[in-house]
Amino acid sequence: MRRALRWLMAACVAIATTSAALAADLRPLVQTMGSGGYSGTEKALNQLSDAGDPAAVPVIEALQAGDLYVRKADGLVVIARKVGAGYALTDPLSGAALGEAAAGAIDRIKVNNAMRRAISAALGALTLMSPDPAVRRSAADAVFKSRDANALDALNTALAKEKDERIRRAMEQARAAVILTAGASDADTQAAVATLAGRGDRDALALLSMIAASGASDTAKTAAAAAVATVEQKLMFWGALQNLWYGLSLGSVLLLAAIGLAVTFGVMGVINMAHGEMVMIGAYTTFLVQQGLRTYAPGLTDLSVLLALPAAFLVSGGVGVIIERSVIRWLYGRPLETLLATWGLSLVLQQAVRSLFGPTNREVSAPSWMSGAFELGGLTITYGRLWIVVFAFAVFAALLVALKRTWFGLSIRAVTQNRPMANAMGIRTARVDALTFGLGSGIAGLAGVALSQIDNVSPNLGQSYIIDSFMVVVFGGVGNLWGTLVGALALGSLNKFLEPYAGAVLGKILVLIFIILFIQRRPRGLFALKGRAVEA
Amino acid sequence: MSAEDTLLYLDGVSVSFDGFRALNNLSLTMMPGEMRAIIGPNGAGKTTMMDVITGKTRPDHGTILFEGETDLTKLREASIANLGIGRKFQRPTVFEPHSVWDNLELALKAPRSPLKTLTYAISREDRARIEDILDITRLSPKRDRLAGSLSHGEKQWLEIGMLLAQDPKLLLVDEPVAGMTDAETEQTARLLCDIAGKHSVIVVEHDMSFVRALGVKVTVLAEGSVLAEGSLDSVSANQQVIDVYLGR
Amino acid sequence: MLTRFFLMGLDRKAGLVLTVLALLAVLVPVMTLIVPEGSPWHVSIFTVSLLGKYLCFALLALALDLVWGYVGILSLGHAAFFALGGYAMGMYLMRQIGPRGVYGNPILPDFMVFLNWKELPWYWLGFDHFWFAAIMVLVVPGALAFAFGWFAFRSRVTGVYLSIITQALTFALLLAFFRNDMGFGGNNGLTDFKEILGYDIQAPGTRVGLFLATIAALALSYMIASGIIASKLGKVLVAVRDTESRVRFLGYNTESYKLFAWTLSACMAGVAGALYVPQVGIINPSEFAPASSIEAVIWVAVGGRGTLAGAILGAVLVNFGKSYFTGALPEFWLFALGGLFVLVTLFLPKGLLGLWAQLTARLPNAKGPNAKGKNAPNGNTADQKGM
Questions:
Q1: Tens of pLDDT along A192-215?
Q2: Contact between A474 and C334 using a beta-carbon 8 Å cutoff
Q3: Does the B8-246 domain belong in CATH 3.40.50.300?
Q4: What range does the record give for the signal peptide (chain A) (predicted)?
């Protein structure tokens, strides 16, 4: 770490010295700008531009803005900006302050219209040929936006030298934009439209549709109109894909919230209205783990989310076991009373957390590996969301394996299918009940860890998920984990596809109405168990 | 046999649950006034057969006609019951929070719409009818007891009484003597034989002595279809029946 | 026939309830309007409105008990019907403000002026008439309940599933009424009422009048409900609660029975909401919150599910407790309410009245609970199977 810092400092020093050295070479050129009238200034300008040193950029910018002056006393070329009655002088290359001067003590270097073009071109050329790739890139983007015909030469020059593929593309697009605006031969126009269609984003679409409406030539118009159609199609495709991603992302959040419920409600038939509070407890556990690490092991803070996973599973699972042993076991076979009792528990848990941690939101910060985003084609994907999707599927898979492949899962299934028989076979049913409920609650705790990254950690966190979770489980079909998966993803996508048309709230309302109607059609959900047992 | 003269006509009825065929191409006919005993091993489809007749389960294939014309597969439970098909469940199902009298009053043949029941006032004839049934089922002394407080046998009888109050054309009786003492079984057999004079009855029963006491035509079901049909003696002699059911 | 219907429901318990209500109807106005303010017997206007609010909740609880206690439908969305009735009344009260609003627009309520609306939406038309609003108080919740129930009962959605989709229903309405463009005042709801039927809504006389109207509505609803329960219809309903399929095989169309009770119950809840709004002076979307519906369920559970008197008792007791605790120990209230849910379901499944019935039944000279089945569907027989 320290070594890296030292290296970085050394690099900075190196850059500073090289630019100082270059600046020294430019100084005589800058000095000549003040002499020889228009032609002298223009000559100096061209030489500055040809030198290809970005250090000259502030000088040319000052010239463009009319801030470049000659100090009468010694003929030094300076940048002067009005301060009070006089002017503050700075060195054009180094930016060092050179004191103040009265208005009469300096002469402005004048610029005529012919020179203005040269100035723009010089600026474009200098930034387009800057050694820093980021500067070249933003210069190309700037030209794309301004579509200034003066930049065309500079662009061509820069393109001839450019090696970086992505910057080349940006420059080509900028060039295409300039050509389309200014007008060119048919072949060039066609090529430019093709380049822009290849870019295919909203900016390209805006430009193309502008050209299609009022282009420089008819060829440009027709070509642009055709390109608009393809770009629109492409945008729609990526838009749909983006929606799908949002849907997947929301779906995986729903899946996380609902999957624990699929165990307690789906497998055990227990209506746990305090399920949301188990999620909330998981989120607060994450908060506590992070606080603890910040205090005692600041170096590990980035790992707090990972360490919070087992902690949240154990804490929420433990609370679940306590709830099962103290309340729920007395209410088996009375689902509606279980619903009421667990609702009461949810109120108690909420208030308890509110009393302990206060009613306000708690900050859980994202680790570095979960922040940021990357682009995939036309998609923008944030790492946080990506990890949550991965995590949701991982939890789902782990649960599936636990239920199908382990002895514990076998006992759970045995107890739910035939309690007396399981008992007779020596399975301690009471213990299996408690552990199953604990498992469901623990998974809710895991969901809490994930949700702490994207939602406010407050006592009401669970409340906002409980109805959605029940909708997912009921929609997918009770007692069927795959149903929960499909239900979560389907409802998530439906929500996100409705959102652009109906808005977030109305979209949600429509989804709720859809579920209500769906339950009427198929009271047992998407993947209903069929058979006599269901009727009973 | 044509469907027209029959009271109940099942032809090629099949039902399956998750791949398990509960009824497999079952065909059966009942004449008006007939009494029939249905026997068969567990899982033979006896209860499912009652379910499809009463509309609880929809068959996948097949025809079920009542009185030769009404297609039962299209109707819901309540409509089928109102056509005149009454059912007694395997486990006695009575309205436990209501008194014996109220149970019979609810079953009594009368208009079934909510507004009619809201304004219902018991008539002299209805009262007499309930008294009759109380006598027949020997529940007269317990008329004000809550049905939930009755013994198992009494509940069975109350449910049969409710069937009588319904006055259906066809009675489906599922294991009426399960859990009864011998004396009660005998009384029940006599009661059913009395009823059979005026109604058609299908009795599903395991108890062979009870079936023998009924002395009626017997249908043996196995794996969802009819294995044999005839008098108890003739089906008892059937080798297939012995193999799948009696012999074990 | 109507008298016979009401008489049928009149047993000892009903007599007691109606007597208490009649006493309140006489005593409260006297103690508020006639007894001078300094006297220890004086009841303040604030208390009258508070009592009126409790009685509105009691009416909601009564409506809920009718479907939960007697038909076994646990509605987690009854507050939606309450709120819809309340909004219908609130719309009438908004129209009565006339040009006295902040913006002085004679037609548009303030929030519409604020949102730059130019004219009254069509669904606000007619609400300047009291009779129209009064009909809507019944029709809107009733129609919603009928449509919802028609689908749900026909598809045989029962038990927990039904409870969950009633909750989804009220949640959807909550979200909808939060939207400004629904035209019901969005977040803030409807408030700043001035007059009802031409009387100043703040005046003591009006307040007492509203209180009396609430008592009348509660008493009438109680008589209707107990009349229904005592009728053969009521017996069918209880039978549906416990063994629905058996009732079907007797030839009853159980869907229409459930629909009848469900719709009636929603109408009662609507009336409760309509009486609530002028007494508290505001209606906003939070009334639709799923939590308020579930809270109403606990009132019924505390008093005694399946006893109409218990529902009323529970609503008044729990809300009294809520008023007390939220004032004195605000932190404690949610613990108390949550604990109540747990304790009542675990230890008092038949509520306070059920406990009372058990205690009195142990006394040697207590009357047998089943004198000719009349009060059969009461607390002492409420069975767990319907849950």
A1: 777 877 777 777 777 777 777 766
A2: no
A3: yes
A4: 1-23
